[in-house]
TrEMBL record:
Protein name, UniProt field: cyclic-guanylate-specific phosphodiesterase
Species annotation: Oleiphilus messinensis
Span covered, complete protein: 402 to 679 of 689
Lineage, highest ranks first: Bacteria, Pseudomonadati, Pseudomonadota, Gammaproteobacteria, Oceanospirillales
Domain of life: Bacteria
Domain EAL: from-to ranges: 23-276
Length: 278
């Protein structure tokens, strides 16, 4: 039994060791991914329920590694946040999204692009300047850019977050609270924040048809948004039933596989034409 214990212990050490080495390799690959042009953005449509039109697109990063293949953002973004490389990656996202928004503008397509800002980026002193420069570089009007920030992105230093968000908002860029309802914060901060939109997390949307509590949470968020004069967007809409409930409750915008998965710009444009034809 003793030898068996020992070999299990050694196996454990070996597997932790290989996990650490794997993480190191991933970090190294991540640090080279920008230079090797391994990132691209996909766009997921946001449908305005009142007009029935696609009014926005969330930009979502994709990393295709030559050997690993697709690495999900939920896997590498936390690593990039941890080692700081999210700053550079985030700059690239901002630049690529503004470039795309400008292309759509020039084609006469009225699409606002929403970019996810990591809490790490948001806390970085250069964020406002970075945004301003990306808009300027691509000659993009501020109204075609939206930034999505999670609660954790501003809860650490609320006073400073209010200042930054106010300036971003005053420059004409819209602001959205992402994954709303999943954080631990109190709601009182909301009235102080210059935020245009609340984005309901997909967890609540998924379960709301079967689960009374989730249904109530979705309803409460929509009411809260309305009374604070914010628009409410639901993410993760997958079924007609969910859509019907959301519309009935007065949700403004829907995003989810029911409309489309995140797609490349060409496919996105095709969605716009399909919708017009319909
Ligand atoms: P998120 O910001 O909450 O984005 C929504 C996620 O839900 C996306 O996953 C999207 O593809 C997925 N989704 C949307 N509708 C549906 C649906 O109906 N069904 C299902 N199953 N999924 C749906 P994705 O693209 O894998 O991104 C995951 C997370 O990675 C994002 O969550 C965001 O936190 C982060 N992320 C993605 N792109 C970026 C980026 O450019 N910068 C930063 N900082 N984070 C990013
Ligand atoms: Ca988001
Ligand atoms: Ca979410
Ligand atoms: Ca998220």
């Amino acid at each position: 039994a003793k030898t068996q214990q020992r070999s299990q212990f050694q196996f454990y050490i070996a597997s932790v060791d290989s996990e650490i080495r794997e993480r190191k390799r991933l970090e190294k690959d991540l640090s080279e991914a920008l230079g090797k042009d391994e990132f691209h953005l996909l766009y997921q449509p946001q449908l305005d329920y009142k007009s029935g039109r696609i009014v926005g697109a969330e930009a979502l990063i994709r990393w295709i590694h030559p050997e690993r293949g697709f690495v999900p953002p939920d896997h590498f973004i936390p690593i990039a946040e941890n080692n700081g490389s999210i700053i550079e990656i985030g700059l690239w996202v901002l630049d690529a999204a503004c470039q795309q928004a400008k292309i759509w503008q020039d084609k006469g397509l009225d699409i606002k692009i929403a970019v996810n800002l990591s809490a790490v980026q948001f806390k970085d002193a250069g964020i406002e300047e970075d945004i301003r420069r990306a808009l300027e570089k691509h000659q993009l009007a501020a109204q075609y850019l939206e930034v999505e920030i999670t609660e954790t992105g501003f809860m650490e230093n609320l006073t400073k977050a209010i200042e930054i968000l106010t300036r971003i908002n005053q420059s004409g860029i819209s602001t959205a609270v992402d994954d709303f309802g999943t954080g631990y914060s109190s709601l009182s901060y909301l009235k102080q924040l210059p935020v245009d939109k609340l984005k309901i997390d997909k967890q609540f949307v998924w379960d709301m048809v079967e689960n009374k509590q989730d249904f109530s949470i979705v309803q409460a968020i929509i009411h809260l948004g309305k009374s604070l004069n914010m628009r409410v967007i639901a993410e993760g809409v997958e079924t007609a039933e969910q859509e019907a409930h959301l519309i009935e409750m007065g949700c403004n915008i829907g995003q989810g596989y029911y409309y489309s998965k995140p797609v490349d710009p060409e496919a996105f444009e095709a969605l716009l034409t399909d919708l017009k034809a319909a």
